[in-house]
Amino acid sequence: MAKTTKLPPPSPLAGPNEPVDWMFAYKFNDASFPGWDNGVLPPYGAPGIFGGTVDDYPEGLSQQYVFASSKNPTLVKGKGPIGNTLTDPLGATFAQVYHQPGYFYILWNDQFYGNPIDTKAAPAGHSKGMAAWNADGEGFVLQVSTPSWPASGCHTFSRNSAATIKAVKNKKSVTVNGKTKPVELDYNTLGCIDDDDVEVAQHFFCLKLTKDDLVNVLKGLANASVVTDPTIPALCNNGGPADVKALVNKLGKESTSTEIFTAELSTGVQLIAKPSKMAVPPWQMISARLNGLSLRVVSWWAAPKIYSTKAGETPPCWAPDLGTPGDVDIALTGSWAGVTIDLLGDNGRGSNHAKIGISKDPKKPISIFGDENQQGAISSGLDKDTGKTEKCTSSQNGRGGTFYVLNNAGLFKSLTKLFNGRTAGTDAASTDLSGIEKTKSGSKAKATPAAAAKKTAKPAAKKVVKKAAKKAAKKKS
After folding, report:
1. What percent of the chain has pLDDT over 70?
2. Residue 450: helix, strand or coil by DSSP?
3. Mean of the pLDDT values across residues 153-172?
4. Which residue from 96, 103, 302, 417 has the highest number of Cβ atoms inside 10 Å of its Cβ?
5. Are 24 and 411 in contact (CB under 8 A)?
6. Which residues, 6+ apart, have CB-to-CB distance to 317 below 8 Å?
7. Pick from 371, 355, 325: which is nearest to 415 by CA?
8. Model confidence over 178-212: pLDDT tens digits?
9. 211-223 vs 242-249: helix axis angle to the nearest 10?
10. How many CA atoms lie within 13 A of 47 on its CB side?
């Protein structure tokens, strides 16, 4: 019998054949850096590298990004559309697993929109990402903020494969954002999927894992009640060490835990996993867990809003033994290369969906990448913004999520600069949103004149090409 060659551990990549301990990328929103490089419009209808065709999203799109890694921790502007090339850090990292059958993986996302599993609200975890490993249990975890991506870990089991279609064939419709729509075939390349998750800003954080790290990450995911189904091949190829396999099989269930799970990983990164049953404001929890570290937080900041809070204020919605949080400031704007970046949620083309916390103390150069937004309640009672009564379990308070805490001076300095800007007050009256709200969806920022001319030259042909390409892609994927 021929020997099976053991695959090397999949790794975070800063580019092709550039393994690193960690990789971080921030994808801009359409209002700040539209389209692809230099605002050039993408070739609508062109095939995506992980299935599907490049979509002409009417709400807008951006796949421009900045990134950093453990080898080069200062943010730099990336080349090409993130997630749709084999040379960008996200595309290169994901391709290792997607294009190489034999790796083990688990994917989770609370917003799959019915393909391959349903979207789930509270108390399900508000967590998105994947982990991949080899026979020894060594690999990486990839935290993402993108709804509906990734949704397949291997091209053999794409979102349109027989196995995936079998998993969803009995569903005639799916509810998305309160609206019922037919279940659709979907794809697995950023910029090519049914949901326009590239209109708004997103983040991606990938971390190298030893086998012991993987065990701890899986325990954290279980504590956070992540949404997945280990029986669907697109979402899971389970294997490797016996304890890893057993932990993977337990994922996708609501946790009964009321305690935070923490672990220090081999890279020095700290993992914190909040359970859904700990109904507290997420980023105040993180601040308190880090000994009252004051934070500047970037997230999908939308109703029910949690405003900035001051150090020493313990929220009425709290849990025993959490300690006292420091300042937790809500970032409203940032900037890159002289361009202002709006950071509100639910703000059309100017929205931000990344979830990032940055220390306010230069002596503690800590950056945090999380799953949860600053939405919920500091205390139960009437929300003056919405006129609704909020409970301690409202919104993100009542959901689970993971947070990765990284101590790195270079990245901290870059993120501090990127997200330096206006800050929300402690209530609506002290918060100035003038000039930020609202960048309406559907009114894309202009691309370069050459790209605009190219787009308008053959609009009818573009639609034909797009339709034909989608047909071809359906056959291949």
Report:
1. 86
2. helix
3. 70
4. 103
5. yes
6. 279, 280, 281, 376, 377, 378, 379, 380, 392, 397
7. 355
8. 556 555 568 899 999 989 999 999 999 999 999 99
9. 20
10. 12
Quote the CA–CA distance of 81 and 37 in Å, as a whole number.
7
The H or E element containing residue 203 is: strand 202-209
Query: Quick one: tokens of 1?
Result: 């019998």
Instruction: Locate 436 and state its tokens.
Output: 């930020």
**DSSP string of 328-372, one letter each residue:** EEEB-EEEETTEEEE-BSS-BTTBB---EEEES-TTS-EEEEES-
Rounded Cα–Cα distance for residues 115 and 345 (Å): 25
Helix axes 449-457, 459-476, angle to 10 degrees: 80
Q: Which 3 state secondary structure label does DSSP give 147? A: coil
Total number of residues shown for the chain: 477
Question: SS in 3 state form for 24-76?
Answer: EEEECCCCCCCECHHHCCCCCCCECCCCCECCCCCCCCECCEEEEECCCCCCE
pTM of the model: 0.90
**Which residues are paired to 203 by β-bridges?**
26
Provide the token pair at 51.
Answer: 């299935």
The sign of the torsion formed by the CA atoms of 214, 219, 223, 229 equals positive
Report the phi/psi class of residue 137: left, alpha or beta, with left for phi > 0 and alpha for psi in -120 to 50.
left
Secondary structure class of 142 (helix, strand, coil): strand
| Cα distance between residue 155 and residue 150, in whole Å | 12
Pairing between β-strand 270-274 and β-strand 401-407 as defined by DSSP bridges: antiparallel
pLDDT in tens, 402-438: 999 999 999 999 999 999 999 999 999 999 999 997 7
Decide: helix, strand or coil at residue 317.
Answer: coil
What's the pLDDT band for 168 if we cut at 50, 70, 90? low
* R_g of the chain computed on alpha carbons: 21
Confidence category of residue 455, pLDDT binned at 50, 70, 90: very low
The full DSSP string for 154-177 is SGGG-TTSHHHHHHHTT--EEEET
- The pair of structure tokens assigned to 475 is 């056959």
Environment class of 462 (CB within 10 Å of its CB; exposed 0-12, middle 13-18, buried 19+) = middle
In whole angstroms, give the CA distance from residue 196 to residue 113. Answer: 12
For 290, the token pair is 């880090």
Task: Please give the backbone phi and psi of residue 287, each rounded to the nearest 5 degrees, phi first.
Answer: -60, -45
Q: Cβ distance 438 to 348 under 8 Å?
A: yes
